[in-house]
Amino acid sequence: MRYRKTKYLGAVLALAVSGPAFAAFNGDQSAGGSSSLLFSAYESVSGYSFTLDTGSRRDDYSASIPLFTPLSFNLALDTNWNTFLAGVGAAHFSDIRWAVTAGDTSVIDGDLRSFLTTAANGLDIGTNGNGTTNAQLNQWNVNYNSFINASNGGDGTVFGFGGQPSTVHLKEGPTDFASYEVSIGSNWSGKAKFDTTGALGETLNFYEANITKSPSGGVVSLTRITTDLLGTVSLTNDGLLSISPISPVPEADTWAMLLVGLGLMGVTVRRRAGIVS
Description:
This protein is an alpha+beta fold and about 280 residues long. It is built from four helices and nine strands, in the order βββαββαβαβββα. Helices cover about 20% and strands about 25% of the residues.
């Protein structure tokens, strides 16, 4: 079977964005190992995939940073997104799968490998990634680096983002690692024990996934990873992409202050009502 030629289309695009400016599409050899936070979509029948650099990085999100700055994008204003949809065809819009990912894929900065990932609509992967192990998470970096290097021209091609915020790609074949479907797919090529993707119109949970250290500081391959829920990611049928932090649950003292405040408001209202009468 003959595969069609890879195509990359890049342009300076007017996107409705809140958040940091676009960063370069980078992998493990920049920013201390912290990759860009990427939105990626693909459709297997057509072979098209689309990737957007959100302008944030892996290190901008952590369980130790409970509230991050929300991001929003209007993909309908992105020429590459519209090219992606045209390549997929309206009949297969329901087959589109998407995810948001980022990774610290090397240990050059002294950190263990860790990732940001979405989890399928309605799926709670708990605190151990649905049973995903350290060894499996350690292999995610192989998939992710393959995707980043191929998409960024690191595989010897002349293609890549070229400083642009997005790209659209037509899969060349089953070993074309610039294709999100080939490199990662719905579950990091079987490394994740959960579906990381959603369909148009869905909202996914947004997690941080880390290797778990043993008490001695080493890594035990059979140990389950740790995952922390950071927020949600939604994509409407109209192409509105939103990345939002989870709403903090008020602590007991906060609830007490709220109840006191409501009580005082009630007293004030009753007093004013008495004066009016």
